[in-house]
Each structure stands twice: as C-alpha cells, then as structure tokens.
Specification:
mainly alpha; two-stranded antiparallel sheet; 3 helices; about 5% strand; transmembrane helix; membrane; transmembrane
Length: about 130
C-alpha cells in the first residue's frame, strides 16, 4: 500500500466544484424569485389574513375524554332504545356476542341492508331502503 502524503489532493478542482454548486443554488433562487414576481402568490394563498377569533382550546381535555369513554362503556353495557319507532334497541355487548355465538355465528343483516360480501369479492350496490310509513 503506497504511503499517502496529501500532496495529490487538487484544491483548485474542489474549489471549482464548490463554485459550480453555489452558482447553481444562486441561479435556482433567482429563477424562483422571477417566477414569483411574474406569477404572483400561489393559487391557494388566501386574499387576506384570517380576521376571526382563534378557536378556544381546552387547557386540560383529559377529564372530558375520561368522561366520554366512561359514557361509551356504559352504553356498551346497558339496554336501551336506539330508535323506538323503528324497533331498534341496543343490548350489552357481551350478551350480543353470546347470542351471536349461540345462533352459529352468522348475523342476519338488518332490513334494507345487504349482507357483507365474501373476502376478495366486490360488494353489491346498495339501493336506498323504503322510508318508514
């Protein structure tokens, strides 16, 4: 392996390369400035600054999130009407899974809906259901 003494490094070539790169950057910036001057601002730039009030953010949203999730858990574990006139009720999630398992696992689609398609097949187009009388 030959000894390296550092004399074979061409600093003029490195300097020229740096000048070429710098010149390219300057030319690109100049072209961008000319394009902005010619074409104006971007199409999605609003004509004037937003003058409304800023949205009010909660300083600590964690208690509201905890209450929201507790309400959802309560709904999942309780009986109640979703739509009494249409005859749609909700039952606890555990009871629903037990009923579904007892029937053999295949849930029947609700009236006016189409059963889900088999994997890898395109589902059928849904038609609007008739309105309740």
């Amino acid at each position: 392996m030959p000894d390296y003494n550092g004399d074979d490094l061409d600093l003029r070539g490195l300097r020229r390369g740096a000048y070429v790169i710098l010149g390219g950057i300057v030319c690109a910036l100049g072209a961008a400035a000319l394009m902005l001057r010619e074409n104006g601002p971007a199409a999605n730039t609003p004509p004037h600054a937003f003058a409304g009030n800023a949205p009010q953010l909660q300083p600590a949203p964690q208690p509201d999130r905890v209450a929201y999730l507790a309400e959802k858990r309560r709904l999942l574990a309780s009986y109640g009407w979703v739509d009494r006139q249409a005859g749609i009720a909700r039952i606890p999630l555990d009871d629903a899974m037990a009923l579904l398992a007892a029937r053999g696992g295949a849930a029947q689609p609700a009236r006016g809906q189409v059963a889900p398609a088999a994997p890898g097949r395109t589902p059928p187009v849904l038609t609007p259901a008739r309105e309740a009388r």
